[in-house]
Amino acid sequence: MSFTIRGQAAKPNLKRMKFTVKTPLLVLLLITLAACERESSPTTTQPRPHLVEVVEAQRIDLSVRRERTGTLRAIQEIQIFTQEEGQITELPFFEGDRVKRGEVIAKLDDRLLRAQLNRALALQKKSETDLNRIRDLVERRLTTAAELTQIETDLAIAQADVAALETRLGFLTLRSPIDGVVTERRSEPGNIADRYAHIMTLADQQTLITEVRLSELLLNHLSVGDTVELYIDALRTGSAAQTPLYGEISRIYPDIDPMTRTGTVEIALHPVPLGARAGQFVRVILQTQRSERLLIPFIALRRSTAHPYVFIIDDDNRAQTRAVQTGLEIGDQIEILEGLEPGERLVIRGFTNLRDNQQVTIVGSASNGSNR
User: Fold this and answer.
1) Which residues lie across from 202 on neighbouring strands?
2) Does residue 138 belong to any structural domain of this protein?
3) At what angle do helices 145-171 and 111-139 cross, to 10 degrees?
4) 136, 158, 193: which is the final residue of a domain?
5) Which tens digits make up the pLDDT trace of 134-143?
6) Residue 17 included in any domain
7) Which domain, by its residues, includes 215?
8) Strands laid side by side in the 104-108 sheet
9) 0.70 cut: is pTM over it?
């Protein structure tokens, strides 16, 4: 490339510019570029460190607290059915009335059955008279043993008829099987009750119970007789609503639902506080006994198709995968039953592209009790 220069104000003459490059100038340019490239390129490439944040696994002495909701119901509720048909002649109790065990709560018309019973009694008496007469004749050899057998059979049938009718007459008078409260009255005197008609419901409300579903992991830490906090929101308002009532675990059902892995716990509220009623909403606070648990932050747990695992950082600052067996979730932490020892360092941040046996750089350590 050449320029025409004239005096101090030399300017390129674009019309006379020639795009030609001489060989010495080209060689000099290539040498200069090669030198610049060698200076800009490092002699070795340093890999970027893999940064991780860790936390130590710790044993913590604590209890597990869980809140569940349920519905209060009477410990015993009995539906009263008729066993005979007939017209209701007495039904003295209404909803809310208290009844005692053995007290008459309903009566049906018994005239037809009583007439049948009188007929059966008359046949029984006749059979007894005939039997005494036939026995005397048999002793004097004036009749056969077959006739004696027939009379004995007639008497047995008459006695059975009497017993059956007396039993059916007893069904026409209904008595309360428990001390309780009438919760439902389904008919009125004068109505015709069919056989097996539901006419009344009684409930023993001296003790109220509720049932809640719990994880199989928590059930193993509860026992029958454990004290439980209860809150019945309908009984109190304002700050008093936070005052707990107390019940106890009265039954732990033996079966576990195979789909949800939960079981049923029955909780009894006794004595029943004033105003508590079956059907009310109740909040249940269950708390296990204090014990030492090995806890890690939930975010440290990794999951695969085979089993959960964590990344452990060894003394050489290398990441190692470790399979673990988990227990209860407690807040933002999870209990480890097997696979870890207290004091081991776990990765809680920096999982991207992290591999087994990879060298890492620790940039921070978090407290196990921190919320993340």
Assistant:
1) 78, 182
2) yes
3) 160
4) 193
5) 887 767 776 7
6) no
7) 66-74+205-290
8) 173-175, 104-108, 86-90, 192-193
9) no
